[in-house]
Amino acid sequence: MLSRASLLSGQQFKNLLALSARAAATSPVSSAAAGSADSSAVGRPARQEPGKVRLGFLPEEWFTFFYKKTGVTGPYTFAVALSTYLVSKEIYVMEHEYYSGLSLLILCIVGVQKLGPAIAKTLDKGIDEYEAQWNEGRASETNALQAQIKNEEQLQWSAEGQTMLIDAKRENVALQLEAAYRARVQNVYQEVKKRLDYQVEILNIENRINQRNLVDWVVTKVRSSITPDQDKQNIDKCIADLGALAK
Amino acid sequence: MMTNLFSSFDPTASFNMSLNWLSIFLGLFFIPPAYWLIPSRHLWLWYKIIITLHYEFKTLIGNEKKGSTLMMISLFSMIMFNNILGLCPYIFTSTSHLVMTLSLALPMWFSFMIYGWLNNSTHMFAHLVPQGTPNILMPFMVIIETISNIIRPGTLAIRLAANMIAGHLLMTLLGNTGPNLTLIVLNILLILQILLLILESAVAIIQSYVFAILSTLYSSEIH
């Protein structure tokens, strides 16, 4: 691990340091990375893809190493010259392993060229699905939180509406109070009027009774003042009148 | 040049230390690291293989013995890496040697047998007479079944080693004709070798699978 770390570039090395510091520290990685100039740029260390290669497996660095001294063709010339030297001096002997190795090399190259992209596509699809699975939890959490925020905002909006509603209710209550007050005032008026009417009725009745009593007294007085003579004269008069009428 | 037909299998080593056997562990370099949450292509392929094998072996072992597939998958991976890496030139094929294959098969078979004999003795004896055997044949069946049981580690070991030897022998013989051929015939040789290599890669995987699945079957017979 450490030998590989020494090969990494500065930024990658910083990432690695942040990672190792995180493993040892109890505080989260942000505080460990805060020591560098821009903590946001350091971020979370991620899996690195392999570097650039030429001819399928030779590192690009070997060619850049030659480029300054020999130009573009230098490394190829060197490779051909070295292999020619090794073969001609029989340092490398072409025995059966060479031929099987050659066939294996051809097999591998053709296999990688023909099947490589399809396999890589399939594998990448699988990895993407796997990554999507991991992201799914985070995304759904974010969605849920956003829905909560939206809900909260709606609640705040409806709470503002509540004050209006309360004002309206207050007004309504005031109206009800007014109505009740008026109803009571009306009630009082009715009750008082009833009592006054009662008094008036009593007075009327007393007056009527007094009047009748007076009339009765006068009638009895008049009747008692009529004597039997007067009564007889009267009847005689009536009979005389009747006799006169009968004529 | 080869001094005899099998000299390409000779364990040649430096410093008097048989370092060639270290090629057994070359496969470890091909097991991708799993440090990261999101796997690489290589690791994903490896996961897929392992999961497929797990389901394959689980149905054979049954659910009551949990974790046994791990051992069989490890066995498969080890043999497969040895077989396939042995196809590469200049890499010693340890699985073409009985000392390797037998030392895998024999202790495993022995441990299964001892476990069975100690824990399920009746069951193990019952296995010696298959169901529906006529009474008169029973003594012979016991002998035959015993022999077939005893030679199991041998067949496991020899099957693997013989398959590896056969393929490598063909490759070596074909390769040895290389220096004497003209360029046109050499092309034919290369095509032949490529075809043979495809076959051998398949054999390398199949044989390791066979080894692992037979071990699984043997282990499932004891309980």
From TrEMBL, chain A:
Can you tell which superkingdom this protein's organism belongs to?
A: Eukaryota
Name of the protein described by the UniProt record:
Mitochondrial atp synthase b chain
Species this chain originates from: Holotrichia oblita (Chafer beetle)
From TrEMBL, chain B:
Q: What is this protein called?
A: ATP synthase subunit a
Query: Out of the domains of life, which is the source?
Result: Eukaryota
Question: Where is the protein found, in the record's own terms?
Answer: Membrane; Mitochondrion inner membrane
Concerning Pfam families, the annotation shows: ATP-synt_A
Q: How does it assemble?
A: F-type ATPases have 2 components, CF(1) - the catalytic core - and CF(0) - the membrane proton channel. CF(1) has five subunits: alpha(3), beta(3), gamma(1), delta(1), epsilon(1). CF(0) has three main subunits: a, b and c.
What does this chain do?
Mitochondrial membrane ATP synthase (F(1)F(0) ATP synthase or Complex V) produces ATP from ADP in the presence of a proton gradient across the membrane which is generated by electron transport complexes of the respiratory chain. F-type ATPases consist of two structural domains, F(1) - containing the extramembraneous catalytic core and F(0) - containing the membrane proton channel, linked together by a central stalk and a peripheral stalk. During catalysis, ATP synthesis in the catalytic domain of F(1) is coupled via a rotary mechanism of the central stalk subunits to proton translocation.
Membrane topology, record value: Multi-pass membrane protein
Q: Which UniProt keywords apply?
A: ATP synthesis, CF(0), Hydrogen ion transport, Ion transport, Membrane, Mitochondrion, Transmembrane, Transmembrane helix, Transport
Q: Does the keyword Mitochondrion apply?
A: yes
